[in-house]
Every structure is written in C-alpha cells, then in structure tokens.
Amino acid sequence: MAKFEDVESYGIDEVIQRQQQLIPQGAPAQDGKRGPTLVERAAAMVRSALGLSETEARRLVESVPSQ
Q1: Distance CA 65, CA 54 (A)
Q2: How far apart are CA 13 and CA 47, in angstroms?
C-alpha cells in the first residue's frame, strides 16, 4: 500500500459501530413474528455497504464488541 499514495486503509470496525448505532433497538415485528436481530440487521447493512457475503458481514459484526 505504501506504493500507492491515494490508497488508505479502511476502518471496518468504525463502519460497523456507526451502523450499529443507526439501528433502532427493540422494534417489534408488525406481524407478530420474530423480527431480525440486531446482529442480523447490522450484518445486512454492512453487507450492503461493503459488498460482502452474508457470512463475512455477520462475522465482522459479531467481532465488534458491543458498547
């Protein structure tokens, strides 16, 4: 990476933490069924933002310590 001055490292932990803060907590499902968990919602956002597979996104979200 030192070879390319315009390439910066990507702080995935920071992205995940910001996304987790945007997710409303405790929102019940409208149809009475269990809604997606916080981890599932965060993984979906990370997957969408970074173009990762579902497995990769979930692994990253689960690796970030909760506050």
Answers
A1: 19
A2: 13
C-alpha span between 30 and 32 (Å, rounded): 6
For residues 20 and 39, the answer to whether their CB atoms sit within 8 Å is no
Give 3-59 pLDDT, tens digit per residue.
766 666 667 777 777 777 776 665 555 666 667 788 888 888 888 888 888 888 888
Its pTM stands at 0.46
Query: What SS3 string covers 16-62?
Result: HHHHHHHCCCCCCCCCCCCCCCHHHHHHHHHHHHHCCCHHHHHHHHH
Read off the tokens for 48: 């969408």
